[in-house]
Amino acid sequence: MSDSTTSTEMIEMIEPSERYELGGSSAAASPSRRWQSPLAALNRTAGGIGAVGVKELRGRMRGRRAFIILTIYLLLLGGFAWMVELILERNYSFSFGGNGTYATAAIGQGIFAALLMLETLQVAFLAPSATAGAISMEREKQTLELLVVTPITSVAIVLGKLLSALVYVWLLIAASIPLTAVVFVYGGVAPEDVLRGYLVLVVTALGLGAFGLFCSSLVKRTQAATAITIFGVLVMTIGSVFVLIFWQAMASADNGRGSGPIKGAPPQAIAYLNPFLAQVDVLCGTETTFGGWCSIENSLLQTQNGVVFDGGPVPAPMPLVDPGFNRGGVFPAPEGRLVAGDVAPFGAARDAFWPKSVVAWLVVSLALLVLTVQFVSPTRRWRLRRGRRHREAAT
Amino acid sequence: MSAIVQTHGLVKRYDRTLAVAGLDLAVAPGEIFGLVGPNGAGKTTTLRMLATLLRPSAGEAEIDGWSVTRNPDEVRRVLGFMPDVFGVYDDMKVWEYLDFFARCYGLPAAGRRRMVADLLELVDLGDRRDDYVQTLSRGMEQRLCLAQALVHDPKVLLLDEPASGLDPRARVELRELLRELRSLGKTILISSHILPELEELCTSVAIVDHGQVLAQGRVADIERRLRFGAVLRVRLLLEGEALEAARDRFAAAADVASASIVEDGTIELGFRGDDEAVARLLAESVSAGLPIVNFARAASDLEELFLQVTAPDRQPLEAA
After folding, report:
1. Does the pLDDT value for residue A375 go beyond 70?
2. Confidence (pLDDT) at A35
3. Do B60 and A11 touch (CB under 8 A)?
């Protein structure tokens, strides 16, 4: 018996088509043993994703709720953009005495920054909370078992749930594009800046959605899953910034009078999953000087406008081109030049942090989805040692 | 004909407890097979292993020739499962619910509409097609869940306590429905501890306790094999001393192990004989002039069997 037990343990979760026939006789007794090509398996998974997706979207989009949320969301976003525009306009009409050339660019950048940050905030909380109940709710309502005894694959369940939740979040993101396009009226923001910002938004939504789904598959109760998810988001955002500042405070040299207990700069990877810092990097790309967002990025990430100086001592902070004015693009630099384009002093390039964040999120999403599939699968290979067993023991 | 559902030495172990301890089952095609046992006997665990929801710790289980561990996908295609506790999705209409599960089985769009209509007709929910699932009564939900287990026209149905929480009318309806399904050629495996219900419905039963099959076969066969005592209740139109005299008379009869007065006019007999002996005892009593109003077995046959087979002196099994 022990032989057959071991072999059954080993073949768990292997796709049926690849399964090695052990018993032989029993399987041979049934004449219709299907061989499944990879294409057919893919087709089957796609069908499953469609089934779950259609079901989820039917629930999510039914009635007026989804559209009322969308309307309120756009009204709030529009109102916020209007408010920022008014504040900046008043501010600049005093400071510039009617010098509109720089003022409109600055207003455009200001609105863009405000909208991008607000949308990031919205994605950071909406995407994970849209998925945090997806699996645990099925467990709570005891519907998951009905689903997993169908031939639908765990991959299809997980992807169907994720995509149907993300479709709604992405819809909200897409609906804000026309509003964001208002910044082109003011100038100061290039189309590629907007694209970068939205790329970060879309990928962050994917990653945080996968994170919420993972939490949902990990714990049984939706409430707990939501709490863990929100806590995780706070750790990634506020927590990572806190660690960066803490590390730097502990490590910083005090004008040659000795350094703190930690050696070296904090690894930038701490902030890879912080979507706000990724957006700060995108916003830094809109600036003509390296004040404003760029200086925030420099001080937090110890970059020179996106480039980390690896190894060796951390160089002294780069002299800002326009130390007196942190509002990007407001004044020409003292040397009489506008630092435009991607080339910065010391040969440092802009836009070096957000791509890392995007790649990190893609990798993390994939890992989280693989784990989620494992947790959804009824006869999964990896099992949490404690807790689950008692639940199963209740016959 | 060979069995369509088979288990050999099926074991499920949790820590040091054996939920299922070497269970052997064989269910022939077309049967309504009852899995009877007290709470915690391992019925649900067994069904969940058959439904590919739990991996057996050891042993084999096959459905329609497919191994539940090696070919779970094939098993899922020939199997309809209804768990003991289940929920329904909110925010879904009855037809959407079935349509969703039909999609999960990869049924083509063309056939789904027709199939949903047929199934709703079968479970008598045709007029609730466009209602929301959460507005259905418990009995309707149960029938909807049964319909959901049938969307892919499975050969085998596993029903875990299908009648729990149903009112008497819903139970009768469920029983009729299961008979209809049997006539459609389905093999049905039901677990229950509500015995009279199974007795009427099942063609065969397995009595399970402590994770093992204690007896298996047709109800009448098991009964014959295991009968080593029955309780007969005799109600007489007698009181006081006359009743006591009657009791003593019964106690002296052949095959009667014990006789006691349980309530006014009723004597309970511990009886060891077979049906012929019962008939003989009755004939003798009547010819002796006892005014018998009622003469019957105390409990339903299956219930009685169950109590005998699962007597409390059996020790719970512990894994080594």
Report:
1. yes
2. 56
3. no
